[in-house]
Design goal:
EC 3.4.16.4; seven-stranded mixed β-sheet; alpha+beta; 500 residues; five-stranded antiparallel β-sheet; 39% helix; single chain
C-alpha cells in the first residue's frame, strides 16, 4: 500500500516547498540587511574612534611645539614692546590683515569727538551716490553747540561729495548733520544705522548718538573700534582721495554766491613741523572733555598702517603718532603666504561648531594673503589653522589663519580639497523611491513581494484540485481491482469481456 501513496506525498511535498520559498527569501533578505547594517555601524564607530585619536594626537603635538607659550611672556615668543606715549589709549593696526602691532587700553571707552565723522562718511559712501544733492535742514544751521562749521544756509543744496570734503577737511558739523539727515531721514535713525554698522564690523565698545561727535555722555567709542571703522572706510577710493586732500573749495550754490575754501586740519598731511612721510589719510578730533583724538593712515614699502590715539594733550597727539609709526615700520615686516608656505601642510581644521581635527591639506591660494610679523621672526614659527564656515554657508574656500603666540598675524583664503567640501545629496524623487526594490534585488537584498500572495493562492487551488482528483482516481482503481479479485466485478460489456 505504501507505494500507492507516493504521488500524493509528492504533491503535498511540492506544495510545502512552494509556500515556504517566498518566506525563505524574505527572511534571507532581512538577515542580510541586518548583518550589513551592523557592519556599517561598526565601521563608522571605528572611523570616529580613529578621528578622535588623531585629533588628540594633533593637539598634543601642537602643545609640544610651543611649550609654555603665553604670548609676549612665553620664552619662545618675541613681540617688540612699543614706545611710551602720552595718549591714554592707542592702537596700530595693519590694513590688509587687521593685525594689531601695538595697543594701549585699546578697548577702553572714550569720547571720540570728530573722528566720529569717519563712521558718518562710511555710511554716506555705502548708501549714496557722490552726485546726489543734499538739502541743508534747519537743525544743521541752528544747532545749540555748532562747533566747527562751514556756514551752510538753511535750504542750501550741495552734493554728497562736497559734504564729505567739508566734513573730513574742515570738520564741519553742519555738513555732517545735513549728510546724516539725507542718509537716515532723522538723526535718531542715522545713529541706529551707525551702531548697527559698527556691530557688523566687529566693534565692541561703541555707542553712537550723533553724526559729528559733539559732546554727549552716551556717545563713546574705543581706539580698537575706530581702527576697524577706518579700515573699512579705506576700501572706498573716495575716502582716500578726500582725506588726503590738503585744500578744497566748494563751488557757489543757490544760497551762497561765494566759494567755500577749506584746508585739512591734519598736521601730518601738510608741510610743516609735524609732517610725516607716507601719511595718506586721517581725521582730527577735539572737544574739552575728549581732549585730542586722532586717526592717521600711513604707508611705507608695501605695508599700510592705521594709528588711533585718544585723549591726548595738544600737539602731543602728533608726536605720539609719529613715534608709533616709526616703531611699527622699523620692527615689523609683511610676508606673502603664497610664496612662503609649503605646498601641503598638516593643520588643525576647525569647523563652525568648534570641533577640530588635524588634516593634511594642500595649500592652493584663492587670493593673495599676508602675515605681519616681527622682523626677526621666521614664517616657519607661525601656527596655521584652517577655519571652515558652517556647511550651509561653506563654498569652495576656507580661511587659513596664522597666529604667533597669542597674536593673530594674518590669513589667506585657500581652495578647499574635495574631502572638506560639503557634498550635495540628491533630493529624493518618486522615481528613485520606486526603483529601490529593483536596486535591492540587484544588490542581492530582495525583500518580500506582495504579488506572491495571489500567485500562491492560485497555485494552491490548482494543487489541491489535482490532489483531490488524483486521490479519487486511486480510490476508484483500488476498489475496482478488489472487486475483480473477489469475483464480484459487474459485467458492463453485454456478455463480452472488457478490454484491457
Amino acid at each position: 500500500m505504501k507505494y500507492k501513496w507516493k504521488p500524493v506525498t509528492a504533491v503535498i511535498l511540492s506544495s510545502f516547498i512552494l509556500f515556504s520559498s517566498p518566506m525563505n527569501v524574505f527572511a534571507s533578505g532581512n538577515t542580510i540587511s541586518t548583518i550589513e547594517d551592523e557592519m556599517v555601524h561598526n565601521t563608522e564607530g571605528g572611523e570616529e574612534t580613529a578621528a578622535g585619536q588623531e585629533t588628540e594626537t594633533g593637539e598634543r603635538e601642537a602643545e609640544q611645539e610651543n611649550p609654555g607659550d603665553s604670548g609676549e611672556a612665553g620664552s619662545d615668543i618675541f613681540w617688540p614692546s612699543g614706545p611710551s606715549v602720552v595718549a591714554e589709549s592707542g592702537i596700530v593696526m595693519e590694513v590688509s590683515t587687521g593685525t594689531i602691532l601695538y595697543s594701549k587700553n585699546m578697548h577702553a571707552q572714550y569720547y571720540p569727538a570728530s573722528i566720529t565723522k569717519i563712521m558718518t562718511a562710511l555710511l554716506a559712501m555705502e548708501n549714496c551716490g557722490l552726485d546726489e544733492m543734499v538739502t541743508v535742514p534747519h537743525e544743521a544751521v541752528y544747532m545749540d553747540d555748532k562747533g566747527s562749521h562751514i556756514a551752510l544756509d538753511e535750504g542750501e543744496e550741495l552734493t554728497v561729495e562736497d559734504c564729505l570734503y567739508g566734513m573730513m577737511l574742515a570738520s564741519a558739523n553742519d555738513a555732517a548733520y545735513a549728510l546724516a539727515v539725507h542718509v537716515g531721514g532723522t538723526i535718531e535713525n542715522f545713529a541706529d544705522m551707525m551702531n548697527k554698522r559698527a556691530k557688523e564690523l566687529g566693534c565692541q565698545d561703541s555707542n553712537f548718538v550723533n553724526p559729528h561727535g559733539l559732546p554727549d555722555e552716551r556717545h563713546v567709542s574705543s581706539a580698537y573700534d575706530m581702527a576697524l571703522i577706518t579700515r573699512e572706510a579705506l576700501k572706498h577710493e573716495i575716502f582716500r582721495t578726500v582725506s588726503k586732500t590738503v585744500y578744497y573749495e566748494i563751488q557757489p550754490t543757490d544760497k551762497q554766491p561765494d566759494l567755500i575754501p577749506m584746508s585739512n586740519h591734519h598736521k601730518m598731511l601738510c608741510s610743516g613741523k609735524y609732517h610725516y612721510d607716507g601719511v595718506f589719510a586721517g581725521k582730527t578730533g577735539y572737544t574739552v572733555v575728549a581732549k585730542n583724538t586722532l586717526v592717521t593712515c600711513a604707508a611705507r614699502d608695501d605695508m599700510e598702517l592705521i594709528c588711533v590715539t585718544m585723549k591726548t594733550e595738544g600737539r602731543q597727539v602728533y608726536v605720539d603718532t609719529a613715534s608709533l609709526f616709526d616703531f611699527c615700520f622699523d620692527n615689523f615686516k609683511k610676508v606673502d603666504i603664497g610664496t612662503s608656505e609649503a605646498a601641503e601642510i598638516q593643520v588643525p581644521v576647525k569647523a563652525a561648531d568648534g570641533t577640530e581635527k588635524v588634516e593634511t591639506v594642500p595649500v592652493q591660494m584663492a587670493e593673495d594673503g599676508f602675515v605681519i610679523i616681527p622682523s626677526r621672526v621666521n614664517f616657519s614659527e607661525l601656527k596655521p589653522q584652517l577655519l571652515l564656515a558652517a556647511e550651509e554657508e561653506r563654498g569652495e574656500t576656507g580661511t587659513l589663519e596664522y597666529t604667533y603666540g597669542t597674536h593673530q598675524v594674518g590669513q589667506a583664503s585657500i581652495n578647499l580639497p574635495d574631502f572638506l567640501k560639503v557634498k550635495e545629496e540628491p533630493a529624493e524623487t518618486e522615481t528613485e523611491t520606486e526603483s529601490q526594490p529593483a536596486k535591492a534585488e540587484k544588490d542581492g537584498k530582495a525583500g518580500f513581494h506582495w504579488w506572491y500572495i495571489p500567485l500562491g493562492i492560485l497555485a494552491a487551488a490548482v494543487i489541491v484540485t489535482g490532489a483531490v482528483m488524483l486521490v479519487r482516481r486511486q480510490i476508484w482503481k483500488y476498489r475496482w481491482r478488489k472487486r475483480r479479485r473477489s469475483g464480484r466485478t459487474r459485467d458492463y460489456s453485454g456478455g463480452r469481456r472488457p478490454r484491457r
